[in-house]
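Internal QA ticket QA-208
Title: Verify multi-chain structure generation after dependency bump
Assignee: T.L.

Test input:
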Amino acid sequence: MNAVAHILNPYLPQRAEVVERVEEGRDIFTLRLRLCDETARAAYRFQPGQFNMLYLIGAGEVAISIVSDPDNPELIDHTIRAVGRVTQGLQQLKAGDALGLRGPFGRGWPLEAARGRGLLLITGGLGCAPTTSMIHYALQRRAQYGPLTVCHGVKHPDDLIYTDRIQTWCGAPDTQVLLTADKGTPEWRGRVGLVTQTLDDVEPELFKGVAMMCGPEPMMRAVAESLLQRGMALNDIYLSLERNMHCAVGHCGHCMFGGKFICKDGPVFSYAEVRTLLAVKGF
Amino acid sequence: MTAQSRLLARADFNALIHALEAQGYRVLGPRERAGAIVFDEITRAEDLPVGRVSAQQPGSYRLEDSGNGRFFDYVHGPESLKRFLFAPEERLWTVSAEGTVSFKETLPEARPVAVIGARACDIAGMQVQDRTFLAGNEKIPPLLKGGHGGIYTDPYYATRRENLFIVAVNCTRSAATCFCASMDTGPRARAGYDLALTELEDDFLVEANSTAGEALLAALPLRNADAGAESAAAEAIEAAAVSQTRRMDTTGIQALLFDNLEHPRWDDVAERCLSCGNCTMVCPTCFCHSETDVTSLDGATSEHRRQWDSCFALDHSYLHGAQIRPQIRQRYRQWLTHKLASWIEQFGTSGCVGCGRCITWCPTGIDLIEEVNAIRATPGAQRAADI
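Actual output:
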């Protein structure tokens, strides 16, 4: 009995408060959070690609990727799209409001394996939050990584968020940003077409580097297969996957993908780990 | 283990119940309720399903009179040990929004519980669930244990686990749906229990397997067992094993199932499966659960609760307004491939212990062994693609 009493309860949220809320686009916003308990705040560490469970009081929990820099773990940014009951509630929060936070959970991006190598970061639709964390991480430590290319695809030009930040990325040394929209508008200055098509404009040298991507699974599969054809190694391609999650600690079974728990074995996987099952519909 | 097995006369069975009560345990045992055997509180031997046997078939469970006075011939009912450790529904924590927001964990009461009548399959099932809910299980493959996410201990499960005293009953009968012998989990309980009983003509052969079990023996009116009693017990258990007509062939099962994800048999079983989730509710190892919030009317407080969920529920795979597995074919495939194959990748053990409950309690009598055998008979067959 006493032994159990001292086990850290992985289900119990910590109290956090909203430091700032930033509107990013239509129904997309970033919540900057801070843990209220000083000890918890001092102990909190995360890696790009990991996620937190955010709890809206009385409504429930959602898994949200962390987009801020791990060297400043006291302020934790989450970019969220208001699509469901909980995320729509989170959208109503203002600076100073309280909520619950537990985490971080899961395996993030392969920071060490990618060090010194070229980085190809590919996102589709709203999958940009997990990859954005990696882009910021690499740009903050520019000398530690080789050339960086971001391929970012959206359905409609209005879906593009982080426009200011994208401007900044374009100006970073040895960095290229390729934007594309499935359908253009007269004002759209990026490419028109699928994100896979932007790979034609990527410097071939990048295909010897490491690719990291996030977005809808069919898009990630198409990109990963295209990268393999372009000579990239199976183990150099990484994907951040998403499934329904309740517990985040491998107990509730919702996020299972074959033998993997996306919550604790992922959400980042090498393509080698998930290639076969990603080809099966309904898994 | 005791060096010497002992005998407890059937007429003295109350002494076991009373000894457990005297040590502060809430004593649960098999009782007949609404046509099935379930675990409930017992205070005397007469509460047990004396002289009752279960006739089990795919989709069928009937209790009948055996014509003898034995206590444990019923084999098993729909319940395993699961609900005593992993509660069907429980509160995990509460939050108060009055004044400063505060979260409070609500661990279960650490009350000692003794369950009499756990079968080898039930204990094996518990040991499988230990790998999901308890960190530090040495049997977990090092890769998983030291792996990225690690294993998290569930303090709710752990609290109940620490307070559970198990009186195993070695099976001397098998139901027609049992196949524990082929899964190498029974019919004799091997580990994880405190006391084990084997029912003989007039006595129980009693073996202790823990310090707590040894301590309890001291409070019982026992006599030493002779070699004849020990061999009679061994023969009865062996006879139960031999009588099992169902057998799961697990040869190369991970590759078999994952190489046949588009086999037409998944469509065939989907025609018979109601997707009701009964199999997952009676399974001793299924651990899926969902979490929900129950908020007070004034919104000031909320309880965060969890309850058993099933991969057969449509919303189990909900993501962004749709389901990953909208078809029954996909959900049955998810369950079976997890139970028999990906469980091994996750936890180093099969998720099936051979209790046969999913066969008995399936309303349409789906037998997972038949499903595996059908795929094994025509490996590589491909379904026609969806139109």
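Spot checks passed. Chain B has two domains: 6-242, 253-386.
Status: verified.
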